[in-house]
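Hi Q.,

Before the meeting this afternoon, I wanted you to have the magnesium ion prediction in hand. No need to reply - just skim if you have a minute. The sequence and ligand are here:
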Amino acid sequence: MTPVVGLDFDNTIVTYDALIHRTARERGLIAPGTDINKRVVRDEIRRLPDGDIEWQKVQGLVYGPLMGAAQLIDGVDAFIRRCRAEDLRVFIVSHKTPYAGYDDTRTNLREAALGWMEAQGFFDPAGLGFRRDHVFFESTREAKVARIRELGCTLFVDDLEEVFAEPSFPSDVTKILLTPEPSGGDADGTVALPDWQAIHDHVFGRPS
Ligand SMILES: [Mg+2]
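Predicted structure with the ligand bound:
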């Protein structure tokens, strides 16, 4: 059977780590030596008074008005190009609300994401070759899983285990978890891999 590939967007295709670090530094929320890592920065901000609100404000900025400075994760483009070369269908299915909880600019987060994709050549036939209607934003995790099922994805790549743990997640879809610390085999059949090179090799086999 020909694979149908589904990809999550935030922290699977695009990384905000450097942007979050820079934004938090500029707002005086973290120490200079803090690791350039979303989770580390988040935990440090949350320890501040009103830290949870400050963290939400940083998120509102980086997913919204500052989105243009986010970075494509290494190896995503090579994976997508390989999918194109193999004539596989590729969809992006993202759990993304239209607006952030805290964002004075009221930037539409979905439009910001589409603008970023456009700038990265996602919709350029000579680039990553996506059609606009092959990119889906859903307001809930449940709706995201329903979309994955409706599209007939045979494999899905996500950085969040919670997506695969949704009771409605179809059992016949190969679950690839992009995680910096793969913990080996998983009882529910999730394949945990550290980077896009490893995902590429898992899906297409290692070059001989
Ligand atoms: Mg994600």
